[in-house]
Amino acid sequence: MTRLLPFFIALPLGCAFLVNLFKNKKAADVLANLCTFILLVLSLATISIVKAHGIVVYKVGNWIPPIGISMVVDGLTVFLLVTVNLVSFLSSLYSIDYMEKYTAKPKFYSLFLLMLTGMNGLIVTGDLFNMFVFLELAGVASYALVAFGTEAEELEASFKYMILSSLSASFVLLGVTMIYSYTSSLNMADVALTLAQKSSSPDVTILFIAVLFLMGFGLKAAIVPFHPWLPDAHPSAPAPISAMLSGVLIKALGIYAMLRVFFCILGASPLFLETLCILGILSMIVGVLLAIGQWDVKRLFAYHSISQVGYVLLGIGLGTPLGILGGLFHLFNHSMFKSLLFLNSGSLDYAAGTRNLKEMGGLKDAMPVTEKTSLVASLSISGIPPFNGFWSKLFIIVACVQARHPGYALWAIIGSLLTLSSFMKVMRYAFYGMPKKAYASLKEAPSSMQAAMIILAIICLLGGVLLFPLFRNALLQPAVDVLLNGKNYATIVFSQLK
Amino acid sequence: MIYFLCFVLFCVGLYGILVKRNLIKIIIGMSILDYASYLFLVLVGFRMEGRAPIYDKAQEVKNMVDPIPQALVLTAIVIGLAVLALMISIAVRLYEKYGTYDITEIRKLRG
After folding, report:
1. B58 in any annotated domain
2. Of A468 and B15, more confident
3. I need a labelling partner for A278 at 20 to 30 A (CA). Which of A50, A136, A454, B35 fits?
4. In whole angstroms, what is the distance from residue A192 CA to residue A124 CA?
């Protein structure tokens, strides 16, 4: 069964080049969607593998780690793989109709699949330098995708994103180099073992490495002091790509990589956890305050991504089992409702031809599917029961109180209320109110776009089901256990190799 | 000493990115910063008076330069090249749209 693992990288990489050979748009649609669908099935299949074996290590080229590169799949990896591949399948489904107005559709799919390769590779790899390579691969593809429309604003956003993101990659490379010079190894498990043997007290080198990684991955995750690129880059991309960038890219490249490095390799010190909490609260509040004043729909959603990532960080930063569960669950939920919101904004743009809230109004009758799904997404991002966002926010807030940080809980509630108010504004201006005459002949979005939005809305509605013991033990709990037992990562990996 | 100079080079790159207004100068700053990190990577594997890491029965295994950073830096340079090419092509497209390389005049996005 471990033979499945390389396909997460090989399949999208192969398809990315194959899809370019087709001149026919229909063939490109079929190939790209088939590829993302197979990846979704594969990622669901890994759930059962990890349930049976706990952790699976694939040795690339049969070289034994720590000499060779390894791919490691554990609970956290599976959780991220399912999230990423689910969103990417629905985004590619949405692209079938949405991308018709752009000329180079096969090239779009090619870049899309390369970005997916980078994310999947980063998630399954067990090698630090390999992680950097996949980080850059996903990054380069996303810079090109942000500039895909080649309008003035899109190029400008892409340039800004590219400079800041390459800077963060340089920090990550420096961190990897310093780890190599300190431990003479790049394999994550081996590095963790060496560091554990070296010293029990944190010394200056480790602290410096930690700061480099925090800056590098923090820039990728758009945590507040590092956020200015995000509200430009995410709205400028085509809608399915915005959904991918906001939904999963910042989480795979930023949060997952950060958690893996800190919890499993460097060790999660109380200082680090506290930093995460404070950064989380800062992102939560600053993101939502900046969002309220926006009139561009996609820009408003992009600011909310910053704020929601803050919730994820706060939950995980608490370090208690409940907090980590809430944080990871919110990560999954945010992927779902934020992708849905960006797809909704794409439909609005597709039909009404504008992203400005002031120019919309009364679209409720013309676009019933978009209206219903975006109502679901708005309610779930604001944390209204019974939608999925409510459960994860509830868990985070309860965990804050349990960890004796009622102040954190208060900030989380304030953030949630502000989120609700800004989404009431979106619903009010876009869908309700007096219909504008210019939109009388408006049509609902085509079928593939509707299908993707409806599936995501159903997931948002039923997301709370994941908390039932049956699903929780399959998907969420193994991921939580990986973070809780971060220090045992090395010993578990090496016991698998014997 | 050499590590300190490498750090200075890194800071020169950072200065270029943060202070300069011309797109091309920002790109040059980015490259300098990248090269500083590559140089650091190679320096990590360097041994004083070391020899090439080629295994031979006649010689004993000692005082060899570490080959792994050399392999890593090649990969990093290739990635850097790809990013650089994309950056320059976007800068050229920006020039076509705005007719200037000055970032203070390229400001259609705000907020």
Report:
1. no
2. B15
3. A136
4. 17
Residue A117 falls inside a structural domain: no
Strand residues in A46-102 grouped as ranges (E):
56-59, 70-73
Is A159 within 8 Å of B83 when comparing Cβ atoms? no
- How far apart CA A244 and CA A142 sit, in angstroms, is 10
Q: Can you give the residue range of the structural domain that contains B41?
A: 2-53+64-110
Q: What are phi and psi of A370, to 5 degrees?
A: -60, -40
The predicted pLDDT at position B84 comes to: 95
Distance CA B94, CA B88 (A): 10
Q: Is residue B44 part of a domain?
A: yes
The band of B110, judged by pLDDT with boundaries at 50, 70 and 90, is low
Residue A54 falls inside a structural domain: no
The reply to whether B33 touches chain A by the CB within 8 Å rule is: yes
- For the domain that residue B20 is a member of, what is the CATH number? 1.10.287.3510
In a domain, B89, yes or no: yes
CB pairs under 8 A between A and B: 85
Residue A119 within a domain: no
Do A465 and A336 contact (CB within 8 A), yes or no?
no
pLDDT in tens, A198-242: 866 667 888 899 999 999 999 999 898 888 889 889 888 999 999
Q: Which amino acid is at A484?
A: L
* Residue A439, token pair as written in the block: 């939109």
Maximal C-alpha separation, chain B: 67
Read off the pLDDT of residues A398-423 as tens digits, 9 standing for 90 and up: 999 998 888 899 999 999 999 999 98
Domain encompassing residue A306:
282-465
Q: Positive or negative, the Cα torsion across A204, A256, A50, A477? A: positive
Cα gap A390→B69, rounded to integer Å:
48
What is the amino acid identity at position A297?
V
Distance from CA of A294 to the nearest CA of B (A): 8
- Name which of B11, B109, B110 to mutate to probe chain A: the one with the most chain A Cβ atoms within 10 A of its Cβ: B109
CA-nearest of A254, A234, A250, A248 to A148 is A234
As given in the structure block, the two tokens for residue A92 are 């590619």
Please name the residue ranges forming H helices in chain B.
Answer: 2-19, 23-45, 67-98
Domain count along chain A:
1
Q: Residues A417, A420, A424, A426: what is their CA dihedral angle, to the nearest 10 degrees? A: 130
Q: A215, A164 in Cβ contact below 8 A?
A: no
- State the CB neighbour count (10 A cutoff) for residue A6: 14
Q: Is the pLDDT of residue A386 over 90?
A: no
| Rounded Cα gap, residues A315 and A323, in angstroms | 5
ipTM score above 0.85: yes
Contacts of A210 (CB under 8 A, 6+ apart): A262, A266, A272
Tell me how close the Cα of B37 comes to any Cα of chain A, in angstroms.
6
Which tokens hold the place of A434? Answer: 């007096």
Give B71→chain A minimum CA distance, Å. Answer: 11
A213 touches chain B (CB under 8 A): no
Asked whether residue B59 is assigned to any structural domain, the reply reads no
d(CA A162, CA A167): 8
